[in-house]
Amino acid sequence: MMRSLQARLAAALLLSLVAVFALSWFAMSRAIRTLSEDIIVSRLAHDADTLLAAIHLDSSGKVSLDPARVHQIYQRPFGGHYYKVTVADSVIRSRSLWDHNLLTPVLKAGEGRRLHQVGPQNQPLLIEVRGFQREESAVTIAVAEELTPVEANIAAFQRYFTIAAAIALLMLILLQIIIVRSGMRPLKRVQSELRELERGAVSSLNTDVPTEVVPLVGEINRLVHVLAQRLARSRNALGDLAHALKTPLTILQRLQNDEVLAGHEGVRVSLDTQTTSMQRLIDRVLARARIAGGGPPAAWFTPQTEIPTLIEALKNLHREKSLAFDVNVPVNCEPLELDREDMLELIGNVMDNACKWAEESVRLTVTVGETLNIEIEDDGPGVEDKAYEAIQQRGIRLDETAKGQGLGLAIVGEIVTQYRGNIRIERSAALGGLRVALNIPLHGIHPVPTT
After folding, report:
1. Whole-model pTM?
2. Which of 54, 72, 129, 282 could share a disulfide with 142, CB 3.0–4.6 Å?
């Protein structure tokens, strides 16, 4: 099925041009033939009148022709010019016919007919047959002329016309391609702007487009605006909710040490567990808001632009530790077709955990090929060798007693799964702490919707 609008227009116009030129060729050829035959018929009619005048009927009814009035062209055998005169039962044929006969009907006076026959030596003939009245006798005169020269001239004209029409058709096709491409240029611009919109480089489409496309562009801009507003409201609502919960959470944490709960150790422990979990959740939401920032919806991820900002945010979050960051990111990397916020949350979560456990150094290495490869290492204590497999399981944490969001990797695992990537956790050979390696496919991969 042809889905391209440009291809459809080009195909329709091409078929129209071919049809027009074919009809023109047929009509022109037919007109030339008709005009040529009309000229020949007018000449044959003149010769028929001459033959009528040359007819002589004697008193006995014998028919003869006056040779002085008959053109010599009718005397040359098979010369291409013939006549046949029929009066009652008498028939007079031109000498040029030799022993050939013209099959012509007998007509009444005033009647006429145009015939096409094969004459002597397979010559194509045009015959003009007319009926007359002469001295109370019905006379039928048939005059014929060979069409071979006319056919040759018509064939030559058709060849020249075909060549000229083909050249004109080719020029019109080229002109049509230019016109169609020029007409489609605004749509190409809209397509390019849609890619920019997908990457987050622009916030709306240019409305300077053809009238037919204005409603579509306007509706896309409206939907983008609505989505941006909803995303902003969601971000703000999460941040506001997290901030709003911090005060009552602080009160609950203070209640844990209240004298009223001194005799209720189980209640105090349960309250401590729940408030600690809530604190981690609030810290994670606030950290996510700080990391994601205010980027446009559905923006693409550009490592060399986004990661430095992320590192600065992490330095501020962990400024009390004065960590040294070793960051290796491609310099001239094109925007990757990966959601900016997803990638910032993915890297931010792992980097935040590395910063929390590192003693002095955190290393981030990013390479781009068929996949986006991210390696994050720290010089912290790491974990026991037997625990590496366990911490990669969904929901498992090894730092439940530490403040902050923890190493749970649940969010990181969800994002990696959505992009059909993989994650590997092991001991860092260079720094001695934890090494987290993430691989995200880049070509033809789109996030899998979560339920």
Report:
1. 0.45
2. 129
